[in-house]
Each structure stands twice: as C-alpha cells, then as structure tokens.
Amino acid sequence: MAIRKRELTFWEKLYLPQIFSGLKLTMKHFFVNLFIHMAHRLGLMKNSSAAVTIQYPEERRWLAPRLRTRHRLMLREEGTPRCVGCMMCETICPAKCITIVAGEHPDPNVEKYPTRFDIDLGKCVYCGYCVEACPEDAIRMDTQILDIAAYSRDAMKLDMHELLNPTLRKPLKECELKFPHKCAIHDGKITGSWDAVYGKGPKKSNQFESETPSH
Amino acid sequence: MPKITIDGKTIEVAAGTTVIQAAEQVGVFIPRYCYHPGLSVAGNCRICLVDVEKAPKLQIACNTPVAEGMVVNTTSKKVTDGQQSVLEFLLANHPLDCPVCDQSGECDLQNFYMQYGRYDPRFEEQKNKKPKAVPIGPTVMLDAERCVLCSRCVRFTDEITKTGEFGIFNRGEKAEIGLYPGKTLDNDYSGNVVDICPVGALTDRDFRFKARVWYLSTAPSVCNGCSQGCNIDVHYVLDRPHLADGARVMRLKPRYNADVNQWWICDEGRYGFKSADQDRIEKISLKGAVAAWDIALTQIATAVTKLKAANQLSAMAVIPSAQLTIEDLYAVKKLTDQLPGVVCTAQVPPLPGKSDDLLMKADKNPNSAGVALLELDKTPASSIIEAAVSGQIKILWVIGQDLVKLFGEEKVKQLAQKVELFIYQGPNTNKTSSYAHVVLPASHYLEKDGTFINVQNRVQRIGKILPALGDSKADWQIVAALAAKLGLTAGWKSLPELFVAAAAEVKPLNGLTYEKIGQQGFTV
Ligand code: SF4
Ligand code: SF4
Ligand code: SF4
Ligand code: SF4
User: Fold this and answer.
1) What digits encode the pLDDT tens for the residues B134-182?
2) Cβ–Cβ gap B208/A86 under 8 Å
C-alpha cells in the first residue's frame, strides 16, 4: 500500500503555533476535569463524568457480562466435561481453531465425551459461534479473561486442562483431570481413569463387554 | 402394461409394480423407512402415504400395486398432513440425541422431519427408556430408543443372510428391537444392517465417534477384498488429521450395482480399508538404508544389465500379484517380455479363504481373472522359489506377494541369503518385506487408478482416491521408471494410454476404454 504524505503548510512549518494549540487542548481537558471532579466532591454535576486513570493490572475496568472473552468448558457435578463431543463447535468455527477427538463415555446416557479438546487462541476470531452452536451449554466465553498473550504460538493453544480450569495457563505442572483424556503433560498419551470418577464396579450389563479403553 | 399418472406425470409400467417403484421411475421421491428395494415389503412405517384417486383413504405407496388408469397425488394437503402425523408419531418417543448420534447428518428422521415434518411437537409426557449403546456384535452398536421399528434389519437377517438374529419384542409403545436370546450379530454381512437402518439405532462400532459424517468426502471404487469385486464408496477425510489418529479412510459403504453386489458388501471387505493407513511402506529402503528412487532404480537396472550382458537373464524372476491392476500387470508383462529369459508369474498356491453363495469368494484377490487373461499364470511360482533356494536365481522381484505366508518363513529366509538381489515392492510391510534387500514403496490401491477383472469377467475401474503416501508410486509407474532406466521403450505415457495398449493386445478387452467401463463396469 502506498502511503502519501501531506505537505505541511507554511503555518504548520512555523512550529510554535502548533505547540501552543496542542497545549491549549491539554489544558482545556485538565481544567474541565478538575472542575468536574471538584463539583463531584461537592455533590454536584452527578450526570457529567470526568476522566479517571485505572492502575492496570492492579485495577481493572468493569466489563459487560456478555463480552466474549477467553473460553471455558463447563463441568458436570462429578468433574467430567459437560461437552458431549458432538463437534458442532468444531464444525461451525470459521477460524478452524477447535480440535476435538471424541471417546466413549461409560454412561450410555451420555455416550460420548471429548478425550481431546483444543482451542487455538492465536487463530480464534472471538465470534462466539462455538457458544451459540453448542447444544449442551458446554462451552462459554464468559471468563472475562482478556490477557491471553503468550511467548509462542504453541502456548496460544489451550488444551482441555486450561479450558476446564480457566485459572490455568501453560506451562502446566501436573494433570488434575480424573477421567481418561489425551494429556499434553503426558506426551499426548491417554491418562486419567473413569474409576477415579465413578469408582470401581460393573457399569453396564451388556452381553458384550464394550471394548473401549479403560485406564 | 398399466398406465399410471403420478403428480401429473403419466408412465406405463410393468404389471405388479408398486406405486413407490413407479414414482421412482418418473422421478418423484416418496419418503420411506421400512421399504427397501432389496427386501420384502413390510408396509409398517406408514410414511409413504399417497393419495390415490377414488380410494377412500390414503394408501401406502410401497404396497399398492399399480392399476390401469390410477391417478396418484403425492403432494396434496391430505398427504402432507398424513406424513406429518406419521413423523410426529415416530418421534413421540424418540430420544433426539442427535449431538451424540453417529447417524446425525445422514439420518432419515432428520431429513424427513425437515422436508415433511416441521410440526409443533405436542408430546409433553415422559419418553420411554430403552437400552442404549449396547454392542450386539463385533461390528454393530444398538440404541433401541432411536429405533423406528421399520424391521429392515429383521428382514435383512431373515431374507438375505438367513441367520435370523433380529426380532421385535413386546407390543405397542413397549415394542423394542433386539436380538433373540443367546444370539450375537456376528454373521459375515452384519455391517449391512447399519447401512439399511434408516436411523441411528444401529451404528458402526468401528466408525463410532471417529468423525462426523459431514466431514467425509466420498469417491467410488471397487473392493479389493476378494474376486467378487463389490462396488464401494470410500468415505475419507483429508483435512482433519486429528481424527482417528490421522487415518484418512474412515469407512467403506456398498455402492449399488445390480449385477455385482446389489446393495451389500461383506464385513471382511467393509473393514479391509485399514491397510491404506496402517503399516505402510513410505520410504525406499536399500539394504536397510533410506534411499532415493533414482539410486534404487539405477542399482536394480545395473544388476539387470549385468545379467543381460552375461546372457543369464533366466536367472531373474518376477512374481507379481493378483492384487495388482490390469495396468500394473500389463506393464510388468511388457517389461519382462523385452528381457527374454526372465520368468514372470503370478501363479501362487491359493490361501484358504471364507466363501459363500451371497458375495464372498474364496479367492481373496480382486484381479485373478486379469492374471489369467494376461497369461501370467502359466509357471507355478513354487518352482521359482525352489530354484531360488537352490541358488539358481540371482534377481528376484516380488510385487505385492507375501512369500512368507505362501511358502513359509524358512524358505524365504534361505532364498534371501542365496539370491543376490531380492526386491520387494508393495504398499504394506509384511514378513517378506523384512527379508528383502531392496524395498520399494508402492501406492495403496486407493491411491492409484486402474482396473480389476472380477470373477464374472467384469472389468471395473477403481479410481484414484487418496494422494500417494510418502515416496510411494503406483506399481505401473515404478515399472515404467525401471524400463526407462534399462533403456527399454514403453510406448505409453499415461494410464489411459497404458490401458488402451493393454486392451488392444488382450483379445477380450479389445476396444475397451475407461469411458466405456464407466462406474458400473463392463462384462467381457
Ligand atoms: S469464538 Fe469463533 S473463532 Fe473462536 S473458537 Fe469459537 S467459533 Fe471458533
Ligand atoms: S458444541 Fe458443545 S457439546 Fe458439542 S463438542 Fe462443542 S463444546 Fe462439546
Ligand atoms: S436417529 Fe436421527 S433423529 Fe434420532 S438421534 Fe440419531 S440422528 Fe437424531
Ligand atoms: S434397528 Fe433400524 S433397521 Fe432395525 S427396526 Fe429399528 S430402525 Fe429399523
């Protein structure tokens, strides 16, 4: 793209008049704000607002609850994901940044759940379609977390650990998920066990024992 | 022959035709669950209602034979109301777990609801509970809640496989699909019930949760599982490598061919696609080290030229396989014809294989008829093996044959020591490839175009579906590259030209082209 620079006029080239017009604007804001802040102290002019400085990151601005922020996956009571691995969000995602691999849930009324669930925030466009598409209300964008920057592209990818627990961020030290899933901490191998969630014992009275992996 | 008018279109059909078949002939689609052209008529799902003039009430199209002068309407208010009511009835107790249902996306309940339903549901009561996610056999998963009791599966196991596993038990709203006590669904054609089940009641355990059906691309091909050559559609995914551990082929489905397999395929064929992604040879191996095509072929060509110079070409043998296409076999034959003395034979002892009257053939090679037609079955390969073990063979080139399976490991071990250059060319690793001195990666049959000739002498085209994996090349390309290295002329540059050359030379194939074969094959 060609950028054309505008020639400065003679008045602008004189330099000092520009400095003073800038200073004038600054002073105007300073005195208007000073005046309104003082009036607020006296209980006046409640309808006019004055500029304030927020000490980020110690202090944070108020965010609208419907603002789309970092994703999270919802949990069932027993600590397994509410997501049923239907891949609706993966299908609708315009940025193609969701990666899901589904597995067999021991409860036939749930049937399916994700053993892997990644969202690449480096690609996500924050459209919120994934939230709209989800039939289970399993994915939300209401964490109000905006600081998602990272030092590498890989670290921009959230895996299931970080999605189920929004306080986490890579590098992760240990895996706290109790159900079988592909675990980034363990080299992408399946870890966790349904026993840790539901305890041992017969789950199904099938004439055929299901051949799904139980670890 | 009675004349019948359907939605204003008049057609003359054979006596005994039903209204649904006549409608199909004039291009009017009538929805159906229980009706299947390959099974007897049950007439129990009631979705195919049509308005027949002068009949007091709606008739089911699947079981109403045409009569002279019949006037049928498939779109009147009476018909659409009837279809809506049937759908509402079928969906009253339906769990609607489409998000976790593998049928979702190819489900006739979903499709017909969008096309003929769209009513406001009135059913507010508790839905019936029935068994869910029950593996009823090695290949099929049953969800009784999703069943619409169309009885297609029952009729399939009664009429086609005659194994009779399925039954509908109890009555009324408690009616439930299931297996007879003590039975498991383990016949050789069990996967077909998944295809014919119009809903997600019967789903494929192998395909289960691997992918959503709308991720799949599909392309027509021919099964390479046996000499029947059943027509198939290959469902594959190339853009989502996270699914199914990076596998490209997700499942195979039968493709209708009235003369070969009708609507069915056997389970052996249905689950035979794993070889496209597993245990593949991707790199050229030269005495254990990875090499480039040029180096490997030059080395082979040098060895052959040396034999030729010493007038010892009879110490070279080629054993191609009936797994190869006509084009591959013809290319090999042409090459060996130009090297007088070289023995080329695909005649190997048959391995035991399952067979029946329906589709499965004992001969598990898709192109045995092609081998016979090219006269590559004259010398028994066992004589070559004996000669090799006794040290009379210097170059042995095996294409797609597992010698260990055919002749035993001991023999192959011995001949690998005696033969100077033992070349194995094929798509997958096996015991034989582990003994070979040079291993050449050949494309899987789904990665190359070509033709097979089945047991009925029907020439069928397979079609290239997947990109070649790693360094692999189609067998005919490898042969052509070697011929070029040897300074021999091929006379064809592309596959269609190669086929035309083969068709010109082999009598029964005279004048055949890929266009003539088409998607349904051509009997010679
Ligand atoms: S917000 Fe949009 S782009 Fe981001 S993951 Fe969801 S669907 Fe994809
Ligand atoms: S749409 Fe919801 S339930 Fe479906 S895979 Fe995405 S998060 Fe899971
Ligand atoms: S059978 Fe069809 S309608 Fe029923 S849950 Fe499966 S996809 Fe949905
Ligand atoms: S299981 Fe499927 S094919 Fe069998 S009766 Fe039920 S809906 Fe029909």
Assistant:
1) 999 999 999 999 999 999 999 999 999 999 999 999 999 999 999 999 9
2) no
How many separate domains does chain A show? 2
Q: What is the pLDDT of residue B83?
A: 96
Predicted model pTM = 0.90
Residues A76 and A167 in one domain: yes
3-state DSSP call for residue B420?
Answer: coil
For residue A203, being part of any structural domain is answered with no
The SS3 assignment for B278 reads coil
Determine the length of chain A. 215
Q: Which of B306, B314, B321 is nearest to B339 (CA)?
A: B314
CA–CA distance, A50 with B440 (Å, rounded to integer) = 78
pLDDT at A215 over 50: no
Task: Give the alpha-carbon dihedral of B145, B148, B150, B152, to 10 degrees.
Answer: -50
**Quick check: B399 and B441 in contact, CB under 8 A?**
no
Using the beta-carbon criterion (under 8 Å), do A91 and B100 form an inter-chain contact? no
Interface test with B, best of A83, A84, A87, A160 (most B CBs within 10 A): A87
> Which DSSP letter does residue B508 get?
G
A114 and A19 share one domain: no
Q: Compute, in angstroms, the gap from residue B118 CA to the centroid of ligand 3.
A: 15
A155 and A95 within one domain: yes
**According to DSSP H, which parts of B277-376 are helical?**
293-309, 326-337, 368-373
User: How many Cβ atoms are within 10 Å of B471's Cβ, its own excluded?
Assistant: 16
Q: DSSP assignment, residue B273?
A: G
Asked whether the predicted pLDDT for residue A206 surpasses 80, the reply is no
Specify if A191 maps to a domain: no
CA of B147 to the centre of ligand 3 (A): 9
Strand, helix or coil for residue A184: helix
User: For chain B, which ranges sit under pLDDT 70?
Assistant: none
Question: What stretches of B21-104 adopt beta strand conformation (E)?
Answer: 49-52, 59-60, 70-73
Gyration radius from chain A CA atoms: 27
Record the tokens describing residue B252, joined without a space.
């195979």
- Classify residue A151: in a domain, yes or no: yes
Amino acid A46: pLDDT: 87
- pLDDT at A203 exceeding the cut of 60: no
| Chain A: closest CA distance from residue B214 (Å) | 9
Over 70: is that where the pLDDT of A211 sits?
A: no
The answer to whether residues A106 and A171 belong to one domain is yes
Q: What is the pLDDT of residue A4?
A: 84
Domains of chain B: 3-91 (3.10.20.740), 125-276 (3.30.70.20), 284-523 (3.40.50.740)
- Indicate if the alpha-carbon torsion angle B89, B93, B96, B100 is positive or negative: negative
- Supply the range of the domain harboring residue A23: 13-41
